[in-house]
Amino acid sequence: MSKGRFSLVFAVALGTFAAIPAVHGQQAAPSSSQAAPNSQNSDTQNQDPLRRQLSDKERFKQQKELKQELHGTYKKWVDEDVHWIITDQELKAFKSLSNDEERDSFIEAFWQRRNPNPDSPENEFREEHYRRIAYANEHFAAGKPGWKTDRGHMYIAFGKPDDIESHPSGGMYDRPIAEGGGQTSTFPFEIWHYRYLEGVGDNIDIEFVDTCMCGDYHMTIDRSEKDALQHVPGAGATLYEQMGMSKQADRFRGGLENLGDGPNAAINQSKQFDRLEQFAKLQAPPPVKFKDLESFLSNHKLLTGPIFPFDVRTDYVKVTDDTVLVPITLQIKNRDITFNTKDGVSKGEVNILGRVSTITDHVVQTFEETVQVEEPAELLPQTLDHSQLYWKALPLRPGRYRVDVAIKDVNNVDHVGIWAQGITVPKYDDDRLSASSLILADKMYRVPSKEIGTGSFIISNTFIRPRVTANAATPVSFHRDQKLNFWMQVYNLGIDEKSKQNSAKITYQIIDTASNKTLLDTSEDSKSLSANSDQVTVEKSLPLASLQPGKYLVKIQVNDSVSKQEIAQSAPFTVE
C-alpha cells in the first residue's frame, strides 16, 4: 500500500429494476399514408384501431373503460399484491395493456424478472413475497388489512427486521440521552432495527407509534411522538428541564422532532435532513451518482480510450442462515492512475461504480466510491509500483449473481476500466459442515471492540487485508521478509449432547507444489478456539523467512468427530 494518504468518500445507492420489455398494443403514430388526404377515409376504415392515433375524447373513454375492465384478480394483483414493490414504469405499462392475455404475460414476466434462480420451477421471490403479505395480514391488521399498515409495508418491502424493541403497552419509559433523557410515559411503540437495507444504508432504525391506542402503528420520523406526556404541563420532564436549563415549551419551536434542549440537541438538529433522507429512501430508490460509469454497466459500452486495468477479488463469509457477506476487493496500481502535481503534491482520483444483479438483470446492490491518492511529488516515481486497495462488503442471499465494476480516472476522463464476472453465493446449510473463503492477507490484526463491524477490511473483530491477483488461479505473492496471514471461519460443527462441546481436528499444512513435499504439518483441537460454539475462526500468521523462493500451497483440513464430516480449503501463494 502507498505511504501517502489514502481516503475514501463513501456513498451507497440502490440500483433500479431491469428495463421493462416492450408492451404489445401500444399506440403508434400515424403513417405517412394516413396523412394523405385522398386516402384518409379508406385507411381509417381498414387500419387496426389499436394502432391509430386516438383523440383526447377517445383516450378519455378508453381510460374510463380500463377502470371498469380492471376488476377481480387483476385489480387485486395491481392494487394489493404488488402495491409496495411495483415500479411507476411497470404500473404505467400494465395499465396500458388492452386484454387479459397481455396482462397474464406481463404478470409472468414481472415475477420472472425478480426470480433469483430462473432455472428453478419455483420462484423464491414470489413465494417469499406472498408469505410476507400473509404474515403482515395476520400480525399487523388494525381495522384494515395488515398489508395496508406501515408495519406491513416495511415488512413486505424489507422482510423481518434483525431486531425489534417492542413496547406493546407503552407506560413508563427512560428516555435515552439522544432523546433528551429523563422519564416519561409513552404510547405503545416499536423500533425495528435492520443491520443493512439495500439502497438505504447500515444500521437503520424504523420507529412505529400507536397514538390512537387501537393497534394501528404508524411510521414516524419524530421520536418524541411516542411521548404521551409531552403536552401535559409539568409531566415527563427531560434531563435539562429537571435541571432548570430549559422549559417544556422550548420543545415546540419547530422542526421534525419535539425533543427539546439537551446534550444531543445540536446533533439532533443537524441530523434532521438525514432522517428525512432515510424516510425518503425507505419509500423510493435513490439516484445513481456516477451516471457516466452506469452507462458502461447498463449498456455494455465499448471502451474507446486506453484501458484502465485493475484486479478484483471476491470472498464469502456467513452472517445468518440466509445472508452471506461478500467482500469485494479492488486493487489499482499507482502507475495506472493519472496524477496531477500542484504545490509539490501529486494527486490522483478514481471513481468506482459497482453493481450486483441476478442473471435476469434485476439489480440487487450497487456501490459508488471515490478513491483519492496523494503523494509528495518527489516521491511519486518510487511509489508507482505500489497499489491502492478498495474494499466493499455486500450482504447477499445465497444464489447466482453477476458483478459489474467500472472505474474512471478523474484526471483522464477517457481512461476507463470495466470488469464483470458471475459469482455463486454459497448456501450454508445447518446440517452440513462448511467454511468461508480462505483469505491470504499481508496484514491481519484484532481491532478494538468499538471498531468491530466498521471500516474497510474488518470482518467480525479482525482487520484482514487480502492479497489480490488478476484471477483466482493466479497465486498471491509474498516476500520472504513478510508474514503469511491466513483467515477462515468454520461453520456448523457438531455439538456433543453430553459435553455440549464441539470436537474437531483442524490441520494446517504448507506444501511445496514443485516437489509436492509437506513443509509444515500441524494441528489443533477446535475446543482451543471456541469449545461451546458450532462456529470457530482460524487466524494464523507464519513468517516466510525460512521458505525458499518458489510456489506453495496452504491447506486447512477440518475433521469433525461429532458430525463425522470433513472439509478442506486450500490457496496457492508464491514467495519471492
What is the topology?
Blueprint: E1 5-11, H1 32-35, H2 40-46, H3 56-69, H4 72-81, H5 88-95, H6 100-113, H7 124-139, H8 150-158, E2 163-167, E3 171-174, E4 183-186, E5 189-197, E6 201-209, E7 218-220, H9 239-242, H10 265-270, H11 272-283, H12 291-299, E8 311-314, E9 317-320, E10 323-333, E11 340-342, E12 345-357, E13 363-376, H13 380-383, E14 387-396, E15 399-409, E16 416-425, E17 434-435, E18 439-446, E19 458-459, E20 462-466, E21 476-478, E22 483-491, E23 504-512, E24 517-525, H14 527-530, E25 536-543, E26 550-560, E27 565-575
Could you name the key traits of this structure?
single chain, 576 residues, alpha+beta, disordered N terminus
Task: Describe the structure in brief.
The chain is of the alpha+beta class and 576 residues long.
Average pLDDT level? 82
Helix content: 10-25%
Q: What structural class do helix, strand and pairing data support? A: alpha+beta
Cα radius of gyration in angstroms: 30 Å
What separation lies between the terminal Cα atoms?
18 Å
Main β sheet profile = 6 strands, antiparallel
Segments where pLDDT lies below 50 for 5+ residues? 1-51
Taken as a percent bin, the fraction of beta residues is: 25-35%
Assign an overall shape.
globular
Q: Total number of helical segments? A: 14
